[in-house]
Amino acid sequence: MIRVQESDFDVGQEIKNLTNGNHAIGGVASFLGLVRDIASDEEISAMTLEHYPGMTEKMLEEIEAEANRRWELDASLIIHRYGRMEPGEQIVLVITCSKHRKAAFESCEFLMDYLKTKAPFWKLEETPEGGKWVDARDSDDTAASRWIET
Amino acid sequence: MKILYFAWLRTTIGKSYEEISPPDTVRTVENLLDWLPSLGEDYSIIQEKRDLLRIAINQEYANLEQKIKQGDEIALFPPVTGG
């Protein structure tokens, strides 16, 4: 499942909903991304996430389908927020459930790496000098490239 | 065809989308990127930042050689920074 939303989410509740009644699941891995108050030595008072409605959902669905092709998962969830958020707020949540931990851990990391380089989101940070669009990082491309199948 | 702009492309060009009617000689994504700066001064960013730009046709990533046609939804945007 994927969800793109402006509102916040409850991690505990999401895990409960995802695993509820499915007793084949033996392990759950999750990643929660938060807004930081510092980036490149600059103070950030808030950030606004812009996205491409339609393509965002399409890309997240493709990424999730790819994870399900590569690992045997019993359930998975990607939630990504958009709009204005302040430091400490939750931005993104990935949950993966499988019979054993290896598939859950690996697919969770894969989903985050792929999401960061493929899902059409852009961060605008509010700094003391005004709004700044965040530059993409080469390290994110490197992280995603290790999953390329040979 | 409809073209959408995101992030600093949107703020520089000053609109989030518009209808464009490129001439028949504009057949590929590459042709389109060559033609767009002729729309006005604000569009010169497309030339200046060309190496950074990502392109989607009908909400799928596209490369420079890909063909474009009437009715397509084209999007231009900087490298993504979500997560």
Structural overview:
- The complex is a heterodimer of chains A (150) and B (83).
- Chain A is α+β, with helices and mostly antiparallel strands.
- Chain A has a single domain, classed as Molybdopterin biosynthesis MoaE subunit (Aldehyde Oxidoreductase, domain 3).
- Helices cover 34% and strands 35% of the residues of chain A.
- In chain A, strands 1-6-8-2 form a four-stranded mixed beta sheet, sandwiched between helices. A four-stranded antiparallel beta sheet of chain A has the order 7-5-9-10, with no helix packed on it. In chain A, strands 3-4 form a two-stranded antiparallel sheet.
- The model of chain A has no long low-confidence stretch (mean pLDDT 95).
- Chain B is an alpha+beta fold and 83 residues long.
- Helices cover 23% and strands 23% of the residues of chain B.
- In chain B, a hairpin with a 2-residue loop joins β3 and β4 (60-62).
- Chains A and B meet through β5, α3 and β9 of A and α1 of B.
- Estimate nothing, just give the exact number of structural domains of chain A: 1
Helix coverage percent of chain A: 25-40%
Order of helices and strands of chain B: EHEHHEEE
User: Termini of chain A, distance in Å?
Assistant: 28 Å
Q: Which fold name fills CATH's third level, the topology of chain A?
A: Aldehyde Oxidoreductase, domain 3
Oligomer: heterodimer
Largest sheet of chain B: 5 strands, mixed
Number of helices of chain B: 3
Q: Low-confidence spans of chain A: pLDDT under 50, at least 5 residues?
A: none
Number of helices of chain A: 4
Q: Helix fraction of chain B?
A: 10-25%
Radius of gyration based on Cα positions of chain A: 16 Å
Using the 3D structure, state the CATH architecture of chain A: Alpha-Beta Complex
Question: Order of strands in the sheet with the most strands of chain B?
Answer: 2-1-5-3-4
Q: What's the mean pLDDT score of chain B?
A: 96
In total, how many beta strands of chain B?
A: 5
Largest interface pair: A-B, 27 and 17 residues
Largest sheet of chain A: 4 strands, mixed
